[in-house]
Design brief:
The structure holds two protein chains of two kinds. Chain A is mainly beta. Chain A is about 10% helix and about 40% strand. Chain A is elongated. In chain B, strands 1-2-3-5-6-7-8-9 form an eight-stranded antiparallel beta barrel. The chains are: A mainly beta, B alpha+beta.
Chain lengths: ~300, ~180
């Protein structure tokens, strides 16, 4: 009897210790620092643009992004222009990720036949476990209008440099949780030529943008730019308004579709921060969308050595 | 009474010898292929940072896989894998703990290739299932290499595949694993 008891106790002990052993093995693998490790926060936004303005998201190194952006005419134009669908402006561009923290892009806009280029550099990444609380990026852009020279006062000349404008932005973003991300965008737009010497060539503005995920693949987005100066600035003789845009991001397999309403017709920083002739108050909205298609040009090192990926 | 002392003594001796026979690595490789038939894109990823310990005495073995360490050819796919499919912020790891069931057929001291049956618990995306896997152990001059190929049903682990990509992502993922654990 005693022996049986002893044996059964032994059997139980060894069974328990077998389970305990794999648990112990698992513990040995657990990285003791894992709980306090500072990991960069990913996917603050779904795309490299909130709507018009840039986000802190960069393309991965070696990724080319072909972007087609449309802004239709004023919805308030009504049936005559099919609520704006008859008049579209377009920006077609190529963005490229040089490193994981640096991307560049060039584009052509139908509005004012503008060509533009930009670079965006990630300076700081938001991290978990008491790391940096925000992601910080610098955006620098330049645009050149094309086409015939606009009318200038008699006795003055229109120089090539008059066509140029520059934009500098700091993008400060925080992903508060898996759903909510917000971004502040202190911005200065420098225009080499403005309508009158009464206005400053430098427009200082603060942008606020954000996204709220409503499901795994759909997010609501918005952005607004407030100008600290040049509020009363005329552009090509028209009164200008601050930019406000509301939209949704819809993610499918390989794309993010962005659909929105905005009072900004233009897609460069000069256009949408300083030259908005339309206002929400009068229903002068533009329906628009951003479509992006990414191509992997340089494969990650784990996948190199078997042809191209187009 | 003497006998029970003896038994306990033997048990203790066993436990101590076991602890001396563990091999470990943090650079085991795991790859998966979840490409649906006829899909224009390959849904494959590799992870070269898999952690593995094997106890040569008991045949117990565990694997740990950081989801964020999977590398995809397309960066966007990698982001979606983490964000929408595996929810790696919520479930950062997948792991397996199990046992070689036919230890009598494996001799870690003798060169050779051994087939082994492994049984244990596989946890992916927060869901734990008991699985049986056929693997191979190659012993060569004291060096030990574990390999295994198996498939898992994606639905079993509550990973949701939306309709728009159902023609690209297969319902099962075939997984292959290679580990070369060494003495610590």
């Amino acid at each position: 009897m005693r022996k049986v008891l002893l044996l059964s106790i032994l059997a139980v002990i060894s069974a328990v210790s077998a389970i305990a052993q794999t648990d112990k093995l698992m513990d040995m693998l657990n990285d003791e620092n894992a709980a306090s490790k500072k990991e960069p926060v990913s996917a603050t936004f779904k795309a490299t643009r909130i709507i018009n303005s840039s986000t802190v998201e960069n393309l991965a190194a070696g990724v080319l992004d072909f972007r087609i952006l449309h802004r239709f005419g004023r919805v308030s134009d009504g049936f005559d222009n099919f609520f704006g669908i008859d008049n579209a402006t377009t920006r077609i561009g190529l963005d490229y990720g040089i490193t994981k923290w640096l991307m560049v892009g060039i584009a052509h806009n139908t509005l004012q036949k503008t060509n533009d280029g930009f670079l965006k550099a990630k300076l700081l990444s938001q991290k978990t476990n008491g790391g940096a609380p925000v992601t910080l990026s610098y955006f620098g852009g330049m645009s050149i209008t094309g086409g015939a020279a606009p009318p200038v006062p008699a006795g003055t000349e229109y120089y090539f440099t008059n066509r140029l404008a520059y934009a500098h932005q700091l993008l400060i973003a925080r992903k508060f949780n898996s759903k909510l991300s917000l971004q502040l965008m202190p911005t200065v737009v420098h225009q080499n030529l403005v309508d009158s010497s009464a206005y400053s060539n430098n427009t200082f503005a603060m942008g606020v943008g954000g996204r709220m995920k409503v499901s795994k693949r759909i997010a609501v987005t918005c952005e607004y730019f407030y100008r600290f100066n040049n509020q009363d600035m005329l552009s090509f003789g028209a009164k200008t308004y601050n930019s406000l845009s509301l939209g949704v991001d819809i993610e499918t397999g390989g794309h993010v579709f962005q659909l929105f309403f905005t009072n900004s017709l233009g897609m460069t920083e000069r256009n949408f921060i300083t030259q908005n002739a339309d206002t929400w108050e009068k229903g002068q909205l533009h329906f628009g969308f951003n479509i992006s298609r990414v191509f992997t040009i340089v494969k990650p090192k784990e996948f190199r050595g078997d042809g191209t990926s187009w | 009474m003497k006998k029970s002392f003896l038994a306990i003594g033997i048990m203790l001796a066993c436990v101590t010898t076991m602890s001396a026979q563990k091999l470990i690595t943090r650079t085991a490789q795991l790859s998966f292929d979840a490409t649906a038939k006829g899909s224009p894109e390959n849904i494959t990823a590799v992870n070269n940072e898999v952690a593995n310990i094997i106890d040569l005495e008991s045949g117990n073995l565990v694997f740990q896989v950081l989801i964020k360490s999977f590398k995809f050819e397309r960066a966007l796919m990698q982001e979606h894998f983490n964000e929408n499919y595996m929810e790696s912020d919520k479930y950062p790891k997948a792991d397996f703990s199990g046992k070689i069931m036919n230890m009598d057929a494996v001799d870690f001291k003798k060169d050779g290739n051994y087939k082994c049956q492994v049984e244990g618990k596989l946890t992916i995306h927060g869901v734990t299932k008991t699985v049986k896997v056929l693997g191979a152990i190659a012993v060569k001059g004291g060096d030990i290499k574990l390999t295994a190929k198996f498939t898992v049903s994606i639905k079993d682990y509550n990973v949701e595949i939306p309709g728009v990509v159902a023609d690209k992502i297969s319902k099962t993922a075939s997984i292959s694993l290679e580990s070369n654990p060494v003495k610590k």
